[in-house]
UniProtKB/TrEMBL annotation:
PANTHER family reported in the protein's UniProt record: CONSERVED PROTEIN (PTHR35908:SF1), HYPOTHETICAL FUSION PROTEIN (PTHR35908)
Superkingdom of source: Bacteria
Protein name per the record: VOC domain-containing protein
Span of domain VOC: 8-135
Naturally occurring in which organism (per UniProt): Nostocoides australiense Ben110
InterPro entries (UniProt xref): Glyas_Bleomycin-R_OHBP_Dase (IPR029068), Glyoxalase_6 (IPR041581), VOC_core (IPR037523)
Amino acid sequence: MTSTITTKLDLVILDCPDAPALARFYAQILGWQPEGDPDADFVVIAPPEGGISTENPNGRTCLGFQQIPDFVAPTWPGGAHPQQFHLDLSCSGQIEAVEPAVLAAGATVHEHQPAENGNFKVFLDPAGHPFCLIR
């Protein structure tokens, strides 16, 4: 008989040059709150329900931001520092309706937009990480 290991995703951590600033950006666009010291070199943000997702009640849905002094922004779709992962953020409604708030928070539209049918749009966060708004 083989044993089963049960794990739960606790935290997704993004390296960045300024942890408090990037945490504020994602907190603003997600409507989440910081946990602990929001001005530390490592900041965690969680949904207002205290980090427990209604879709995943047995696990946390949190983002962490780790300050790295020699951070180099990822490049995508190619380059010396390719994207290693990205976040897909679903929109309630149309991407075009959400986009102004994301841009006002500090995101930029990526020059490369591979979606042929418009079901997602690629942005860069203030540290240069790609993320997508999806329908």
